[in-house]
Amino acid sequence: SSNSNRKNAMNYCIIALLSLTSSYHTLGYSIIPQYQHGRRMTALSSSSSSSTSSHDTVEQCQNQPIIENNRRNFLNSAAAKTTTALLLLQSTTTTATTAPANAFENRLNDKYADAPATTGTQPKDLGVKTRKSRTEGSYVGLKMCGNSPNCLASSNPYADLPVRTIEGWNAANNGGSIRDVKKVIDTYEVGHDDIDGGGYKVMEYDEKENYLYVQFQSYKAGYIDDFECWYNPKKGQFDVRSSSRVGYSDLGVNNLRLEYIARRLGEEFKWTFERSGNGMLA
User: Fold this and answer.
1) Residues with Cβ < 8 Å from 264, sequence gap 6 or more?
2) Cα(84)–Cα(77) distance, rounded to whole angstroms?
3) pTM, rounded to two decimals
């Protein structure tokens, strides 16, 4: 893309120079010589009034402002075209050398690191807030999922959206903390179950508020998913939310991510979870 932009800029420069050459040919070899010829004729008329009529001299003087304007317009056009061409070339060169990489440092490898990433837009209403509830009026917690099947969350009342709502997570003997989750994230296996090959980044971590926010990225397309975990004192559980930003179906990616984190919390820190008959998080 950068090479293409640079090639387009070079082509524009060539076209501009050809245009200037053509314009100069028209002005330099017809209008400008007329102007020079007029000056010579005027000089001759002043020195040899007998050979040049007053009518010829007046006609040359009347034509001179038009010639001056033509030459001025030519010079202004030349300056404008040259400046535009140089600025375009400089802009594309700068873009090519300073374009930031759309990849997390801990991605699986650099194979698709320079590919354009479809990151989507980070939601502005993440975090712990007072939110509207369809069944209870309001609740305090993480954002509720939308209608698309690319999100799972546990903060909102279950009756609000049963198909996208899971149970909160239980720390060991209610003595665990957000530090347990942070330790799992710090050693997160990039690319497990063929997901999150683009790596991840901890965006916010607050031990005092028991809150953690992490962004995960897909390997090829660079999709960004948002993961949050927060201790809900009212429920005595940790609420979680994992959601995609773009698209409709996530092909089970958010569920696989939550299953991985939950499995490690259970194995390493003795957390417990509600599960359905098929063994998946309920």
Assistant:
1) 184
2) 11
3) 0.65
**Bridge pairing between strands 211-217 and 224-232:** antiparallel
Per the CB < 8 A criterion, the answer to whether 255 and 279 are in contact is no
Q: Does residue 154 surpass a pLDDT of 90?
A: yes
Do the beta carbons of residue 235 and residue 168 sit within 8 Å? Answer: yes
For residue range 14-32, list pLDDT tens digits in order. Answer: 444 445 444 444 444 443 3
Q: Within 13 Å of residue 14, how many CA atoms lie on the same side as its CB?
A: 6
Higher per-residue confidence, 54 vs 132:
132
168, 154 in Cβ contact below 8 A? Answer: yes
Burial of 181 (0-12, 13-18, 19+ CB in 10 A): buried
> For the residues of 224-276, what is the DSSP string, one character each?
EEEEEEEEETTTTEEEEEEEESSSS--TTHHHHHHHHHHHHHHHHH--B--B-
Spell out where the chain has E strands: 129-133, 137-141, 151-153, 200-206, 211-217, 224-232, 237-244
